[in-house]
Write a structure and sequence with these properties.
Layout (H helix, E strand, L loop, with lengths): L1 E3 L1 H7 L3 E4 L5 H13 L4 E7 L3 H9 L3 E12 L11 E2 L5 H8 L7 H4 L5 H17 L3 E6 L3 E7 L4 E9 L8 H16 L3 E7 L3 H9 L3 E12 L7
Parallel strand pairs: 2-3, 8-9
Antiparallel strand pairs: 1-2, 3-10, 4-9, 4-10, 5-6, 6-7, 7-8
Helix pairs in contact: 4-6
GO molecular function, one term: acyltransferase activity, transferring groups other than amino-acyl groups
Keywords: Acyltransferase, Transferase
Enzyme class: transferase
């Protein structure tokens, strides 16, 4: 019921686990004791927001809300974007992509969770981008020095957009729309029928952006965390 997040544990040099489901009260107590014995530093879980009783149970045992997310869905069909040059990125673009991402995801759960320092949250996104470039199942597209997007196929008919970023000075100029249009074209050629993207519920700018591109809300989720060792940001 606790799955170690090996990549996260290695990156942050602290053992991190995820609850694969929310158990009953007595089982949750046992899981927390087991996690302490197994030297976990932090536990996290994510589930649909409509399960209020589970939020209350987790809060009883010291879990806290670290993120509220909205998952959007859209049919894959051609999207008319502005005439902006978008190209596929490769490993040679890693320095550029890391520079673009710097300070870009301050609304993310990693930046808002007291378990992670600011530098750790930044390092996560830097590593995430490099991993995306190394992963043959993920495609990354780039608008030179201004923005990028990553996408991957989840199944035969479903796709996902894990990351979208446009630097502050270039937002509102159509770059995000051009990146989404490129992704829709790529998914369409791959035979994908629907695509999903997740954003923070309190990121009003992003919410309006996806709504304006005909994405529809699929569901709302909550991410919760519990610090087992090291109570404050170091």
């Amino acid at each position: 019921m606790i799955r170690e997040l090996a990549w996260d544990s290695q990156l942050f040099k602290r053992k991190i686990g995820r609850l694969t489901r929310i158990p009953s009260d007595d089982v949750l107590q046992k899981l927390i004791r087991r996690a302490l014995k197994e030297n976990y530093h932090y536990l996290t879980c994510r589930f649909n927001l409509n399960r209020v009783s589970e939020i209350q149970l987790l809060e009883k045992y010291g879990f806290y809300v670290s993120d509220l997310g909205v998952v959007w869905e859209r049919k894959v069909d051609p999207l008319s974007g502005p005439v902006i040059s978008v190209r596929g990125a490769n490993l040679n673009d890693a320095p550029t992509l890391k520079k673009i991402s710097s300070g870009l995801f301050k609304d993310s759960r990693f930046h808002n969770d007291p378990f992670f320092t600011y530098d750790e949250a930044e390092r996560l996104y830097q590593a995430w981008i490099v991993n995306s470039l190394n992963d043959t199942d993920i495609r990354t597209f780039l608008v030179e020095k201004k923005g990028f997007i990553t996408c991957k196929r989840l199944s035969k008919n479903k796709g996902d957009i894990p990351l979208v970023g446009v630097i502050a000075g270039e937002q509102g100029k159509g770059i995000g729309s051009a990146l989404i249009a490129e992704v829709m074209d790529w998914f369409g050629k791959a035979g994908v029928k629907t695509v999903m993207v997740r954003t923070q519920a309190y990121n009003v700018k992003a919410m309006n952006f996806y709504k304006g591109l005909d994405f529809r809300v699929k569901y709302v989720d909550v991410t919760m965390g519990k610090i087992l060792r090291g109570e404050e940001k170091r």
